[in-house]
Amino acid sequence: MNTEILGVILMYATVLVLAIPLGRYIGKIFNYENTWLDKIFNPIDHIFYKLSGINPSIEMNWKQHLLALLIINAFWFVIALFVLSNMSWLPLNPDGNPSMSWDLAFNTAVSFVSNTNLQHYSGETGMSYFGQFILMLWQFISAATGIAICAVVFNAMKERTTDKLGNFYSYFVRTCTRILLPIAFIGAIILVFNGTPMTFEGKDTITTLEGKEQQISTGPAAAFIAIKQLGTNGGGYYGPNSSNPMENPNYITNILETVFIFLIPIAMIFAMGYVLKRRKLAIMIYTVMTIGFLSLVIPSIYFEMNGNPAIDQLGISQNMGNMEGKEVRFGSAASAYWAINTTCTSNGSVNAMHDSMTPLTGMFAMLGMMVNSFYGGVGVGFLNFYIFIILAVFIGGLMVGRTPEFLGKKVEAKEVKIAMIIALLHPLMILGATALTSFLYSGNPEIYAGWLKNPSHHGFSEFLYEFSSASANNGSGFEGLGDNTPFWNITTGLVMLICRYLPIIGPVAIAGMLASKKYIPESVGTLKTDTSTFGILVIAVIGIVAALAFFPALTLGPLAEYFVMNGM
Amino acid sequence: MNTNTNLFQKTMVQKALKESFIKLNPKIMFRNPVMFAVEIGTFIMLIVTIYSIISNSQGSFGYNLAVFILLLMTLLFANFAEALAEARGKAQADSLRKTREETPAKKLIIENGQFDRSVSSNYQSLIVNSSLLKKGDIFVCETGDLIPADGEIIEGLATIDESAITGESAPVIREAGGDKSSVTGGTKVLSDKIIVEVTTEQGESFLDKMIALVEGASRQKTPNEIALTILLAGFTLVFIIVTVTLKPFADYANAPITIAAFISLFVCLIPTTIGGLLSAIGIAGMDRALRANVITKSGKAVETAGDIDVLLLDKTGTITIGNRKATNFYPANGIDEKHFIKSVILSSMTDETPEGKSIIELASTLDNGQLVMDKTKVFYTVDGKEIFNYPLNILNFKKFTAETRSSGIDIEHIRIRKGAADAIKLLCNEAGHSFPQEIGEKVTQISSNGGTPLVVSENEQVIGVIELQDIIKPGIQERFERLRKMGIKTVMVTGDNPLTAKFIAEKAGVDDFIAEAKPEDKMNYIKKEQMEGRLVAMMGDGTNDAPALAQADVGVAMNSGTQAAKEAGNMVDLDNDPTKLIEIVEIGKQLLMTRGTLTTFSIANDVAKYFAIIPALFIIAIPSLQGLNIMNLHSPESAILSAVIFNAIIIPMLIPLALKGVAYKAIGASALLRRNLFIYGLGGVIVPFIGIKLIDLFVSLFV
Q: How many CB pairs below 8 A link A and B?
């Protein structure tokens, strides 16, 4: 078999082999079971609780959980905003990089707060080391926020009637210290050994083969990159993200970084199985997500390895596949694989330019973000999927002639209403914002000419991709957009903010309300949610609710480009 | 009762057609968000059609008119479905209401308002119209009278012909006191005279409530219907977003889209099929309940019936045929069989219970004798030879009482008693006599075989045992098996001792039983199951069933039952058929399933509609998109028209399914989901591809 494809299979297999035991470990942490790491972490956690005056044994209801989440997020958001707009005079700025404009600071702060990491700046020139540190802190906070709130939902799904769902601060601290920190630490060490910088000194100067002097940005990159990949953050230390050789030096680091993208999202599914003692349900969810992922990644790899007909026409050999915008050290298959990994999980880091992918690969990347729950972001991917489960349970429950119930709790009008609002939000934000942009652009192409470097269908794909990325809290860019303007900074900032918090509030509210309902034991007449039939129903719901709504927009973007390019 | 299953009767169709236009009123339409959205779209198309007379910028007049008419048809079809369902419900209700027509009532004139039983024959009666009767009024009915209103017998006993509401021609006996004291308006007194108190105000009887439910006037949406409406409104919103944003997208791509195309796309994408049929499905569900001769107080009760986890059934009449029968006599050691039979006959002579009668029946068959009782004496002969002959005045009958728990007779110095083993044992022991061991063994043996032992004593000495046996209804095991496959646990309620109960429970195939049940036992069992989160249904008729009927999630009262029982339950079964619950559960499940499957079908249709309309919208501006026209439809206009036509005609095509309901099969939830997902989900994806293509072949002849 082709070595490139073998590499892809190796990467997926590695994730799976690691994610299963990791899921078990995460489940133990959520269940407060003993692990061998307790000796190290119990005292550390204790220091945090003591410093912040938290009593981790006070249980919260779902509203208190959300309040705690918003407080943590709002507090650090203000600090991030301050640091980003005052970097120039704050310490740790050896390269003398400037402070951010207010709109860029807003966009960047929102972007990191929301686990999106959409970057309308370039790390080398736009960020001090102190700024990078505050962003790295956010890469921990936003990832831990997602994982901790997901733990609350797991707790709420248990077979009992309660409104006491654990302590958010405790889940949050345990997630940081026992999950993110140790794994990121290992990742950073591996990156350092492969050549990624980890220093507080300023730019290096080297002499190139041509004899010219070149300035090379360095800094505390390895630590940043590890958590960037692990926490489905995706914001690169350097502008070109993981296509930059400092950020992703070789195929080994590429394996590591790709594995890190999927590691926690997949482990979370198994963690749910462990917490709820519902292995079959976990397997159903894993299978549905995997089918969704494969249906996007397989054609993408196929199209990228087959090359671009437009380049063929130029008479350029494409025996390595479509290599425009890709790194030779990774190849077309591993780049396509990364592209779908990163868009399915709301990671958003890139190791190749998505703008240069063939049109359909671009479409599959966008679909990954539009669905946003084929594994999805850490913690939040499961929450998105939870909404689809609720909708599927409702339709499926009616189809078997019973008031719909999920894990023994009746799903009624209120839950359906919330689930529908959350399901609506994504099309509303992506299509609405793209429509606004198209409206402005088509009304006055001269004024907004700076926005688009590629007109026509590809330009439209760039709009659509940008807002899909913001709405999915993904953060990758199709690029080719002149996006550091107040318009783009504010619109994408608002989309990121709304699409971060509402899709967290919705599922938590549903789970919290279901948790306080009466538990109904299963009978033969109950719709079972851990079966393949139910899995098919979930796939159908995702396909129709999430994907079909975007069909007209995709037709005008990547599909039109594809059909035009292939001369149909 | 009306079992006419023809869905499209001429008179009903005419009525429904008229109603379909009346229902176009936006105020009525507003209740249904999906169809209301279609109505707005239709209105816009009307304006566009008029505009296109003077300008061609929005496409030709003919094309716009065609789209307008098709949208109007969509609305009318949806209204027609609802109107037809209502018409059917009304027809059914009218046939019941006929029984309510004005009848003369002999109202008693009671001056102080206080009915006094001792002087009941002295009251004067006044003929008034039944519609003037109020709750609390008292009227009298004699042979041949139609009962003017629902009520409760306070004095007397009568045979009544209830065929007007139940269709059952055999007359029934109703009498004051006890559990069979309730009479229904419109039924006829065949013999005797009763005094009845009116128990419901005019217009508030069950039947009135039911009629309102099927007529739609006071039809409130059930919780599941509300949730589904929210889901459908959500989908409608998604497609509003999709359609509205398409305008700037198309402007960007320089692909002008006509208003007709926008509205067609929108109407095709929103779930009009289920939106149009939703209320028809709900009404048809109520109608099915009515056809099964069940009157429900709310639509919610029918839906809840589909969710039932536990079913409480009385043994007698439900699981077993009527009553127990005597099957064997076992004289004690040293007692002559002839003597035993004689004693048994004496003890049961005046026992009017079915068990008592069956004892006499068995005794007289065993020795081929004949019991004769006249006004002065009672005698018993075997082959012309007199066994006994007593004047009635020396007989002292002892009725069954709660204290003695036995019944019998005293004749001069002979005291014969029969009763439960422990009662007789106590009686004998108190008199200093022992309870024979072989009788004890017999009693256990009979009990463990599902029989009921009745021990007989003479002068406080045991002389033998009578065995009573239950006869299990044929086919009941299959029905319980069906319920089990639906996930419903059946519980038998019986006054029998645990041994007997266990035997019958096993034989009949019920999952659990409550033996020696007192009314509070039922109540406690229901509460316990509800505490564990299960929904419980039960059927009852007696006043002492009322609390349990009220506690149960679905309480079905027999029409023959007391008013208290009827008030407490949320359904009334006109047929007094205890197995009716099974049908009610199926009706409830069918109702939900029909909604679920048609929702799935409706949404699955969108795939094909997208592939019909989206290429049609852009193909002129971007010819390469011909590649998306996988159905190879003739032209953009024909593609859009075909999709809209399909969208419209699928509604009337599915009316029969909506009214009859999706067939429920007790095959377990997973298998059912697989089946429905395959038929309505996959079918919903494939059918419109074929349908739209066929319609396009036809339409392209004209466009």
A: 217
